[in-house]
Every structure is written in structure tokens, then in C-alpha cells.
Amino acid sequence: MCDPDSGRVLLTLEGHANSVSGVAVTPDGKRAVSAARDNMLKVWDLDSGHSIRTLEGHGDWVFGVAVTPDGKRAISASDDQTQVWDLRSGRELRTLTGHTRGANAVAVTLDGKRAISASRDETLKVWELASGRELRTLEGHSSYVEAVAVTPDGQRAISASFDNSVKLWDLETGAVVATFTCDAAARCCAFSDALKLIIAGDAGGHVHFLRLEEPKPKI
Asked: Which residues span the domain enclosing 112?
């Protein structure tokens, strides 16, 4: 963990036995949850740098993690399955079953009701977190889906894929709203609500800034 102003390292969080693939921070800024290729997640106290607990239950690499807005649950994306965890107890609450291959990434809507997982089966899935029920499948990519982000209003998702594309999805209908093609595999994506920008990075070393604009009504 680094100081954003000076770049000085404040804490080093040590405890995983293999490379760390993802990390998420609780909304209060007091905890971090890391996902690693040792098949585990760890919950960290950011004041002390100590590991509070380890979340065990995956049988393969864990690639990504997201935390619900209330800070009570984590959702992990793994090569074996997607799981929902209680962060206070470390208990697995449920497994989100439906992908035919492993999940690379996961995001949660701001209301904490839904999660969107990105998978190597070339799809994304929208889940109801309270029940673990699959709501819909987002189909349109032709290779691994590497990353996913959600707009703050919970109406859209952005995905980045090895098919070189970044897609914008309507989460209510499952339809593709727009597609942008990169010069290389799209590896990551994020959304700036303040600027209404989609930011995506590709394997060729480029960062793309894409303006999100609603179509103007025809007169």
C-alpha cells in the first residue's frame, strides 16, 4: 500500500503463497480483500497490515474479487467457480453456478443487489446476490472476457475481452449497446461517472478513453 502523494510504501501485506491477482477495498477504507493464485482470499486490516482472516473454499486460482457497498460481503471470481463470502465470519454463503469455464473478474452494482461475472466461456452473467439466482447471460464476445465494470446507476456494464473489444451492455435486457475495437486484447476497464468516460487498457500498451453519450432524440 502506497501514499498517493509521495509514492512511499506505507504497508506491505504478506501472507499469500502465490501471486496476487486482484484486490478490493471496503467502502469505509478500513479493510482490503485480496485474491490470489494460492486458491485463497485474505481480509486485511489496512491500519496494521495484518491479515484478519483467510477465505478458503476454492479449488483453483482466484483471479478477482469485489466487495458489496455495505462492506459485509465479498464475491470472488475463480478458475473453478464464483463464490459469495461473509467478510465478518469468513463463511462461504453461496456459490454462483452457471459458467462453463472459470471466471476472470466480478463487479457489484451500487445497490448491492446484483453481481456481474466475466468468464473464459466468452460470456458475462448477471446474478441476484440474495438468492444466487442467475438473472441473465450477456453473450456477444468471441473470446475470454477478462474484466468487467458497472456504471453507478446499475443500468450498464462494461466488459473487456481477448477478442480485442470493449462492450457496453444494458443489464435489464442483456443487449449490447455499443462496441469499441482495440488494436490488441482488451485487458481491463473502468468507468468514471464524473466524466462519463469508459477507460480501457489493451495488451498493446494503449489506454483508451471513450465518451459515454446517450443518443440524441430524433426531431
From this structure: 98-211
